Please model this.
Amino acid sequence: MITNVLDFLEKSADKFPDRIAFTDKDSQISFGELRERAKAIGTCLSETINQQIRQPVMVVAKRKISTIISFMSTLYSGNFYVPVDPKMPTERKHIIIKSINPAAIIATDSSEEFLIDANFTNPTIFSKDCLAHPINETLLRSIQEKILSQDPLFAIFTSGSTGIPKCVVIKHQSVINFVEIFTQLFNLSNNVILGNQAPLDYDGSVKEICLTLKNASTMHIIPKMFFSFPLRLFEFLDLKHVNTINWATSALRIIASHKALNSVKPSYINKIFFSGEVMPVKVLNYFRKHLPEALFVNLYGPTETTFNCSYHIVNQAYNEDEVLPIGSSFPNTEIIILDQDDLPVKNGEKGEICIRGTSLALGYYNNPEATNKAFVQNPLNKNFPDRIYRTGDLGKYNDLGKLVFISRMDHQIKHMGYRIELGEIETAVNALTFIDIGVCIYDDIKEKIVLFYQALEANDKKIITHLKDRLPKHMIPNCLIHYGKLPLKSNLKIDRVKLREKYFNEIDYGYSSFKQINK
Model:
């Protein structure tokens, strides 16, 4: 019986001790080596924090194997890990440390920039110094016997669309269930060779790490710089024989915008999973045209639902102005769409996407108010405790019974007397072949729909002309702002918070109806 993610590592290390588990740009590690190093650091960590368990341990998450070792070390110590971006702003660093008060920080060495001005008084563990620490098998075994499947595995800070950090706590059982279901659904095995794109402080990378541990497969941490040079990226994928990718939609969009597949394509890719943002159908069609034999799967799910709660296998052609479904719920997960009165919507009607099942997070660390607001009693069941997670996303079921994501609820606006979903405007914009990507905000001071778009050149009039054929007049953007390159977060998603802040800080409110700003 699997009750702890470490059971995946133990079984793979027992059966395939010499098989390469993970690589980064400088090194590689086998399952056997990973276990031994993690146990050494785990022993050191446990002794340093006086054998406390179920405590948050902050890990400075560089794109290196040492980060994954630190994750496993934390689990061996009986605690749960909180990965953080080593280059995060100082203010956010202080907010995070204050909000979770970690029992310890694990860093690679004392030169870590993250530790400068961290104002951290609890122990700091340097993984390099602990590799030679004697392993105390008796201690580690006694710790693991106390860890339950419902105990925390990891916690991820996510700001969502608001910019305010919240720490989502995920338990072992949710990850174990997901990994086993995902493996079975998509026929994964130890022949899988993953190419990791997600930063190691994002939940997407946790999914890939745990799939690797469960299946005794191999994961290559792709150097970040390669995503700016698709041809070099393809060379890397072929060199490593990568056959499976689980990337942010935006990473695939960047490749499509470079038309990289026109001249060369990866030789081994046969499974492409994507998530994080709405996939423009034009980008999907580009990849399907050049990689027709590959399996394409659209995944959906907030961090609070443990990686993904729904999936859609793309097995038909879609027009570029269509919205790609997010499909059906994973086994042991139920998706409910509720209206404003907390009643199930009728077929074709919009409502809030709500999730129930074993995938739900434990809640937000040290934040009962936010937890109680998002994780609530199922309004359709008054008879016994039955939690659901309110995603804040609007969705509906299409004519084929497939779930379709529409927009964030906080992207629903009232404009010219109409209720408008900004996501519907973005879908129309992103169907235009001469636009790389477009996102919208609402200026409620001037009551204008603002479109930020990335394209080779500014062409506001052409955009408006095309949108008039696709959208009613009240949904046409009133202000268009051209970017040569939209700002991205570290996981390659469009940074909507930065766009909004920049707009309201810098825009001249004397602009005409259509104002263009070249960046």
Remarks:
- The radius of gyration is 23 Å.
- Confidence is low (pLDDT under 50) at residues 509-519.
- The chain has 15 helices and 26 strands.
- The first helix runs from residue 6 to 15.
